[in-house]
Amino acid sequence: MDYVVKDEKKHDQRLEETMKIFEDRELPVILRNRIRAIGGSDVTFVIQKPLFKTDVSSGHNRLSIPLNHIQQSFLTPEESESLRKWNMKKASGNSTSMYVLVTNRKSVTERNSMKEDETVQLWSFRIKSKLGFALVKRRLQDDPRNRSLRGILDS
């Protein structure tokens, strides 16, 4: 898992900008209903982030969750103690601590045609006490940076 962020400032800036873009942090009703239908509860917004090259690369097969961008605690104390945190090295010599989701990443990425720079939200939920995740891909027209495209996409 050796990956060094070459442009640390740009990487951090993209994360910050994406966190501010969407004020709407509501899980889509259809997804909330699906989670309930499978016995899920305790739905929690975890993070919103742009997808980076390593998040969509089949060679890396992971979704990074920087700890300093997590919006709400979603792990039990036991899970927090047992999960491995990865310290990603940056060109400056600093590092960023993160969780990394790896299970089924490649199939999720391919099935949802996920691409670099798209914005996603990660939500957690529980079925009984077992942790689960829901990934919401933000639509292009929801992104205020794409205002000029709205007329085309809405028609």
Notable characteristics:
31% helix; 28% strand; alpha+beta; single chain; 6 helices; globular; 155 residues
Give the helices and strands, then pairings.
Layout: H1 8-21, H2 29-37, E1 40-50, H3 53-56, E2 63-66, H4 77-82, E3 86-89, E4 95-101, H5 105-111, E5 119-127, E6 130-137, H6 147-154
Antiparallel strand pairs: 1-5, 2-4, 3-4, 5-6
Mind explaining what this structure looks like?
With 155 residues, the protein is an alpha+beta fold. The protein has one domain. 31% of the residues lie in helices and 28% in strands. The protein contains 6 helices and 6 strands; from the N terminus they run ααβαβαββαββα. It has helices spanning 8-21, 29-37, 53-56, 77-82, 105-111, 147-154; strands at 40-50, 63-66, 86-89, 95-101, 119-127, 130-137. A 3-stranded antiparallel beta sheet has the order 1-5-6. A 3-stranded antiparallel beta sheet has the order 2-4-3. Strand 5 and strand 6 form a beta hairpin. The longest helix is centred in the N-terminal third of the chain and has 14 residues, at 8-21. The model is unreliable at 143-155 (pLDDT under 50).
Strand line-up across the major sheet: 1-5-6
C-alpha Rg, in Å?
Answer: 16 Å
Shape: globular
* Poorly predicted ranges: 143-155
User: Percent of residues in beta strands?
Assistant: 25-35%
- Give, in order, the helices and strands: HHEHEHEEHEEH
- Largest sheet entry: 3 strands, antiparallel
Number of domains: 1
Structural class: alpha+beta
Q: What is the number of E strands?
A: 6
Helix segment tally? 6
Indicate the percent of residues in helices: 25-40%
Q: Please report the distance between the alpha carbons of the first and last residues.
A: 44 Å
Average predicted confidence as pLDDT: 77
Subcellular location: Nucleus
Protein name: B3 domain-containing protein
Organism: Vitis vinifera (Grape)
Pfam family, one: At2g31720-like
